[in-house]
Amino acid sequence: MTRVLDETLRTAVRDLADGVGPAPDLAGRALGRGRRLRRRRRVATAGAAVLAVVAVTLPFVLLRPGPAAPPATPTPTVIPSPTMLATPGASWTAKPLVLPGGWVVTRAQTTTGSGKGFLLDRGRGHYITTDRYDGIFPAPTGSLVAVHDNNRPRDIGLIDLASGKTRWYMVGRALSAPRWSPDGRRLLFTTTQLDHEGFIVLETDGTKHTHPVDRRAYFCTDYCDFTWTRNGREVALPQTGGSGHNEAFRDKRRGVQLFSADDGRPTRLVPVPGDPTGPWAWSPDGTLVVVQGQQEPLLVETATGRVVNPLPSADAVWLSDDRLLYRRPLGTGDFVLTDPSGRELVRQPLPRELVGLEVTIAPR
Question: Are 274 and 265 in contact (CB under 8 A)?
Answer without folding.
Answer: no
